[in-house]
Amino acid sequence: MTDLPARWRSKEWRAELARWLLPAIEATGRQVTGPLVQERVRFWSTVLTVETDRGKVWVKENAPSQAFEAALVRVVEEVVPGTVAPIVAVEPDRGWLATADLGQPMWHGETMPPLESWVATAGQYARAQRDLADHEDRLLATGLSRFPSSPDRVVAWCEALLSSLLTLPADDPRRPTAEEAEQVRDGRGRVEEAAATLEGSGVPHSLQHNDLHLGNAFPLSDGAAIIDLGDALWAHPLTVARIPLWILRSRGDLEPDHPDLRAVEDAFLEPWSDVRDVESLRALLPAADRISCLHRAESWRRLIADVPFEVVDEPFQRSVTQWLVDATAPDPYASAIAR
Q1: Is there a contact between 231 and 195 (Cβ–Cβ < 8 Å)?
Q2: Nearest CA among 51, 49, 98 for reference residue 70
Q3: Cβ-based neighbours of 103, under 8 Å, separated by 6 or more
Q4: pLDDT tens digits, residue range 177-201?
């Protein structure tokens, strides 16, 4: 297990990256005009930039469990061009991804973006999901994980995760309290029912971004470019809707049937209306909400397992447990908002 932030800050690692990146950039016809600048280091990834005569280039390396993003982005761009940021270079064996700068994301300050931006991004991503659903083998070949879908396997996944968390020492922040463990056990039936609802929906699985919000979307003349696919899973496509819907609901203090939420829901649902009518699809969203909490738990589980626990930032140390608790709560939204 490696202290990834320490490695990413080292001169040796930066030199190794530069030996690949700078020639790869110049091979595209760009001329490098500035130094390599490290913009961010987190325990799950690092991001750097370099100026060229054709604009800034961003380069990213993920933690090992999410290193598939580089190869995944390339496949997504081949299947649905324009869905991701323009690719400059990819080194899939190292998980290095270099993309062209697109300026500010749709959400880059405290002010919430307008509803139109949420609707446009939801619609574009859902249409991409519809196309990507036919390319399961290609996407899984990048290292993308398939999340369990059958009710018994989903429940077994929850039980295994709870068991592993309960083996941790009593003073480990990841260990569930007695009350949390009891809630997870009591909520297994809710998870089983939600998984059965999605499995019986007839909607094919596709690429679940697992962190879709407007901080990860950049405006283009004809839609949006989506970044940060490292959390992604192969799963029921409607699970992708939870994050934007919960953001809008909580930031705007909206009721669940508010017209703004329904507009975003419609954008996510319409591409699947050849499978089921929109209202039947809308009825799946509560189940998708619940299962998507497990997707977040899985993302944090694998990232925290990539590094020594002491380098995990304190606000994220209980993320796996918290999302497992939310997934099994009577109301996942109320459980999460209460934090």
Answers
A1: no
A2: 98
A3: 218
A4: 999 999 999 999 999 999 999 999 9
Q: Cβ(151)–Cβ(199) under 8 Å? A: yes
Closest by CA position to 201, among listed 156, 155, 151, 157: 151
Helix (H, G, I), strand (E, B) or coil at 56: coil
Tens of pLDDT, residues 306-333: 999 999 999 999 999 999 999 999 999 9
Task: Express each pLDDT in 161-175 by its tens digit.
Answer: 999 999 999 999 999
Full-model pTM: 0.97
Inter-residue contact 48 to 58 (CB < 8 Å): yes
Q: What pLDDT, on a 0 to 100 scale, did the predictor assign at position 223? A: 76
26 within 8 A of 32, measured Cβ to Cβ: yes
- Spell out the domain ranges in the chain: 4-100, 115-337
Q: Homologous superfamily of 4-100 in CATH?
A: Phosphorylase Kinase; domain 1 (3.30.200.20)
Map residue 273 onto helix, strand or coil: coil
Percent of the chain with pLDDT over 70: 100
Q: Which fold has domain 115-337?
A: Aminoglycoside 3'-phosphotransferase; Chain: A, domain 2 (3.90.1200)
The number of beta carbons lying within 10 Å of the beta carbon of residue 228 is 23
Characterize 102-116 residue by residue with b for buried, 16 or more Cβ atoms within 10 angstroms of its Cβ, and e for exposed.
beebbbeeeeebeee
Dist CA 312 CA 56 (whole Å)? 30
CA–CA separation, 6 and 332 (whole Å): 36
The Cα 129–Cα 75 span in angstroms is 13
Yes or no: say if 301 and 313 are a contact pair by the CB < 8 Å rule: no
Closest CA to 300 of 142, 161, 136: 161
